């Protein structure tokens, strides 16, 4: 029987995986896979499975134009594997081929929050004991009085987007619902009712510093709308309309402009005060899935696209991108920067995360090789940890990577990526696997 390397095979692997520590992964005897996959129980090694899964994924994805992609040296090691956790939650993360991500957020080097179809869970990295902090499978209603609060609440709200910052959790639903919860208070603070427009799904939520000095949040909608709210009062402030469904927005650090990307190769750079479009962001070849602004630079931002590339832009000159960074197999659905701006991580929809050294102009990168849907990326605020969410129609799992010291990063430029190569077992059943794959 042919050995399967499709998403169903990966789903089974994740469902049967077990937690793994850095010590278990590093030991020479009975070395564990970083995702806790028992390769000894399969008919192939990890390297052979990767080889043929890569071939399978490339056969189902369009290949981007390569002439302007930057040549980046792979092999650096900026973050080392620390832990793999299988979070015990009663609802699963469903994988839809619509490039959904953003279901992982970190508030400290030891705290990560994960979203599933109906729940938000808190998983402290030290204990790995998940706690459900918001369950939308039943009835949820606000417990505070605010103008415009939907006091009736919701039933069975399916989560499509989430974000966390400064104890504020904001969740978006597939029908345009919004739920705001302060993590240091019981109950829910504010609810926005479902959109009366068709295709009201919220694709992403971004909390940012408004030019007035207040903290705001903005939602990106499938209904071609970007809505702005005050994060302290939860009051609606403004609505920006675009000619296509908006998948993501990112704000400049000074709050003066934002970039909106969506179901169109072109993005838009927008003046926040007037709402006028400053310029178009042109260069991608497919729908744009993700974006992120440099945390310490008011002009540079990044966009990720279906064409398997992440482009770096300078808002002062959008006639061409500054850099074009190429992924391996799928759309670039997640982009995030460390708070000091030194590193950028970009996640593909499936199987790969790339960590770039921004300071050296993206000359080097670390490639993290996993199996499954990358459901989100998040650096801890102190830059010491990188959390990667992984699922495939399964319960959520996440990997924690810890920042290496500067000396390790520089000296390890010739090392292999974190792919957990099990060279000792590479020869096991190789000929059988080669003949069985189809």
Automatic annotation (TrEMBL):
Recorded hits in Pfam families, A to Z, give:
WD40
Q: Where are the WD repeats?
A: 281-323
Q: Where is this region: Disordered?
A: 406-438
Q: Which SUPFAM superfamilies match?
A: WD40 repeat-like (SSF50978)
Keywords tagged on the record: WD repeat
Q: SMART domains from the xrefs?
A: WD40
The reply to whether Aminoacyl-tRNA synthetase figures as a keyword in the UniProt entry is no
The name on file for this protein is Uncharacterized protein
Q: Which organism is it from?
A: Phaseolus vulgaris (Kidney bean)
Phylogenetic placement of the source organism: Eukaryota, Viridiplantae, Streptophyta, Embryophyta, Tracheophyta
